[in-house]
Amino acid sequence: MNKTFLILLLLFSLDVRAQSDYIKMFQGKWYGIVSSEPDSRMNYWNVIKGNQQLCLSYDSISLIDVNIRTIGFLDRNSELEDVSELKSQGEYLYFCSTSENNKLNCFVITSFSIEDTSYYFGKTSIFEFYKTEDFPNSIYQALFIWDKKHATSYSKEFLNCTVGYIKEPKTFIYASPDKVTKRYIIKNDPVEILLKQGDWYKIQYYGKQKIQGWIRSTAIE
Predict the structure, then answer these.
(1) Which of 97, 128, 173, 213 lies at 20 to 30 Å from 119 by C-alpha?
(2) Cβ atoms of 150 and 143 closer than 8 Å
(3) Based on the domain organization, do 51 and 106 belong to the same domain?
(4) pLDDT tens per residue, the chain (221 residues)?
(5) Where a domain ends, among 136, 153, 177?
(6) Quick check: is 151 in a domain?
(7) CB 158, CB 54: distance < 8 Å
(8) Strand ranges (DSSP E) for 133-189?
(9) Are 13 and 112 in contact (CB under 8 A)?
């Protein structure tokens, strides 16, 4: 089984007998590390929206993998025919995905624990997870690039970000449509489009710092 997926499964270990609707508890953004491996460069980011989980594996330099899981519960541990069978509560927690040959693959978790917004798991390997208000700029940037490369729309679906990509070799950022700055972005850079005003877009660029400004709409593909 994929090690990354195992770690992400552990994130959701909580006592299913004590709550009535677990999916509501896990809405939002989460961050995970392997605290027992201080030299590990891997970290894990995910977003839960409804019953869908966006899972991102990041090695501090680049995005390694992105997966989508359907999460839900049942009062039995058995093979599913369709994810529509899943409920928002139950004794067993299911993580399901569809393979390239349309086969439904599900993993089942039976024992769970939760302490405020932090999670601790493992014996030899200790995994820690934390609820976070936001992701680092590098995660946004990496996901935007992933979407373009793989023709997906996860940025919009899970983060509500409308993304465009610079098509000109060099595009200057304006403080307002009539005031240019010295800052610029280059071809293929992804930007979040915040607002359209005539022939201009108000954008946000996720670099070392978040930069907001205006660029001409003709600069974006």
Answers:
(1) 97
(2) no
(3) yes
(4) 555 555 455 554 444 444 446 777 778 898 887 767 777 788 889 898 998 999 898 887 788 889 899 988 888 888 888 888 898 888 787 889 887 778 888 877 766 555 556 554 445 556 677 889 999 999 999 999 999 999 999 999 999 999 999 999 999 999 999 999 999 999 999 999 999 999 999 999 999 999 999 999 999 98
(5) 136
(6) no
(7) yes
(8) 163-165, 170-176, 179-186
(9) yes
**Closest residue by Cα to residue 120 from 13, 15, 2:** 13
Name the one residue in this structure whose structure tokens are 């005031």.
Answer: 179
**Could you list the residue range(s) of the whole structural domain that residue 171 is in?**
162-219
Instruction: Give a yes or no: residue 143 inside a domain.
Output: no
Check which CATH number belongs to the domain holding 175 and give it. Answer: 2.30.30
Distances (CA, A) of 206 to 56, 113, 190, 209: 17, 35, 8, 6
Q: What pTM does this model have? A: 0.80
Q: What is d(CA 23, CA 200) in angstroms, rounded to the nearest whole number?
A: 40
